[in-house]
Amino acid sequence: MRVRSSSRLAVILKLTTLQTLYSTDHPGLKKRDELEDMLEERRRSSDARHALRCYAPAVYKGLAPREVSALRGAVLQSDALQHVIGQVSAECGERRELVQEEAAHLLDEMAHRLRLGTVRFFAYVLSKVFKTLFRSVRVNEEGVQRLQQAIQDHPVVLLPSHRSYMDFLMMSYILYTYDLALPVIAAGMDFMSMKVVGEMLRMSGAFFIRRSFGGDKLYWAVFSEYVKTMLRTGYAPIEFFLEGTRSRTGKSLTPKTGLLNIVMEPFFKGEVFDIHLVPVSISYDRILEESLYARELLGVPKPKETTSGLLKARQILREDYGVMHVYFGHPVSVRSLAQGRVKRSQYNLVPRHIPQRPCLAAQALVGEAAFRLVRLQEQAMVLRPWTLVATLLLQNPDGMDLPVLEEQAAWLRRLALSFGAFLDWPGRTCRPVVGAGLALHKNLARVSGGRVRLAVAETPGVGQTAEELAFDRAVGVLSCASYRNQILHVFIRPALLSVALRTANSSRKDEVYTCFNFLWTVFSNEFILCPGASVQDFEEACYLLGKCCAVQESQQDIVMSEGGHATLAFLRALLDPFLQGYQVVCQYLCKETEENLRENKFVPAARNFALQLILAGTLKCYEALSSDLQKNALAALVQLEAVTKVKV
């Protein structure tokens, strides 16, 4: 990486001075489904009877399910794979039979081997586990009914949000419970190291793919043809995570489009009439990997997935993880998305089995669809009161009197609802709700003498160094921030506008928009901001702030209203950790004497720089230690051409 001493970098450095300081339908306008506790019946009846009941799901167009061996043969004998096998054979000078054997080996390594007996075993075990971990698992049954109809009419792709390893287990459990066809799930090769468990996951519908394919043409051909064959034949719903990996921060991650490209291609080539993409929003009262994620963000290596590690994790069964919510969104038709956007006739110019790059229109459509689907996930994410409490505690590190916290939580609840948040708030009063959240998250916040503060150590323990104390504090702060981050999608656009109003030093709408657009660009890797939608996001932010009477808007101007100070100050404080973190990265790059800095050394070096600022007392923001924030800041600087990335 090469640092440019440019005006752009200087502008970003000025972000620190601001510390005081989906584009689809507006969220909240559509009526949301009611949620029902699916564990209620499980607590009243036999888990064994549930697991062994008659399972006869409706399938695509009433077709008889294809055997796994028949699916394997269809993939290996497909014209598309045979074409690539011929190409690889010619390029490598190997006999075609050897390349064919290699393709068969790759498919066997990858493919699922669904066995109903294994599914029943998981249904029994998971019933026990989920009833122990969660007070309730609330599902929108209307969404399940929509999914059941969609599976019968069209090939279906399930796209859940990804916050925990529990996500894909719960998805299969729900579909089995409601007698829907079980999904075939894309899983990372990491699970293959779990000897017994890995094979059991394969027999319950998981297929395993490498994290990256590199330039392996044969592997890509086997993988894509495997997925497309299942899709074309309606073999089973296909499930994968648009974000690619679990979010360690609680925020949605920028979507990956590789697998989405593959599942949409059969429609572009006219091989299916339509494909339905179903966004699924999964949220937790308390995340199982809470402290593990915080440590990973601070540079502690991710533990390797092993069977012995899973057995050691049994202690989590003694913990209370509150309520889990799963919301199945409305199916999104690929045919409707592509109407008037992609000319499918151009795919007729080349035989369908010959691989070809998607046209520019198709690439743009896939990218826009990916962002839209993640936005739909966000809008249907059920939020619990603790997300509001965590937000307030992070903005008040010295603590808050309990009555003040309850009063502020009630105010923030009203603001969030006016912005379209999907809040699950039991009852009408704040005191019991806030108290329940504090009790569930007693590891993150404590009440002492009627005052609530984050549960972080104030002084070093016996034999503890200052660096170790800072690390422990950072774990607590980042764990708490992961819950605040769950609600950021509700506030991010008004928050950007609030900072822009302070930055612009002008009430003229065009000047405020210029500042908004700059901040929007800087944080486009940090939050889900759909490419090319800055004007629409600006208009949405103006509407929301006007709706809550925080600003007054005219044709040319936008100004803070008399009663808008508290709202705008809160929204600016939401962005403050990110502004400080990005400014620290800029400071580090300006002081870095090595012109060519290796990217793999950047995060540890930037984290150490931030740590020294914290130890010196010049930085109070522990979120600046997060590797996720540092990587996003670097991506923003590259996008702004303040830093150049060069392959060496």
From TrEMBL:
SMART domains (alphabetical): PlsC
Localization terms from the record: Membrane
Signal sequence segment: none
CDD domains per record: LPLAT_DHAPAT-like
Pfam family membership, one: Acyltransferase
An example Gene Ontology CC term for this record: peroxisomal membrane
Keywords: Acyltransferase, Membrane, Transferase
Phospholipid/glycerol acyltransferase domain sequence ranges: 156-285
GO molecular function: glycerol-3-phosphate O-acyltransferase activity; glycerone-phosphate O-acyltransferase activity
Pathway: Phospholipid metabolism
InterPro entries per record: GPAT/DHAPAT (IPR022284), GPAT/DHAPAT_C (IPR045520), GPAT/DHAPAT_LPLAT (IPR041728), Plipid/glycerol_acylTrfase (IPR002123)
Listed GO biological process terms: ether lipid biosynthetic process; fatty acid metabolic process; phospholipid biosynthetic process; triglyceride biosynthetic process
Keyword Transit peptide assigned: no
SUPFAM superfamilies associated with the record: Glycerol-3-phosphate (1)-acyltransferase (SSF69593)
Entry's family note: Belongs to the GPAT/DAPAT family.
Protein name: Phospholipid/glycerol acyltransferase domain-containing protein
Organism from which the protein derives: Electrophorus electricus (Electric eel)
The gene coding this protein: GNPAT
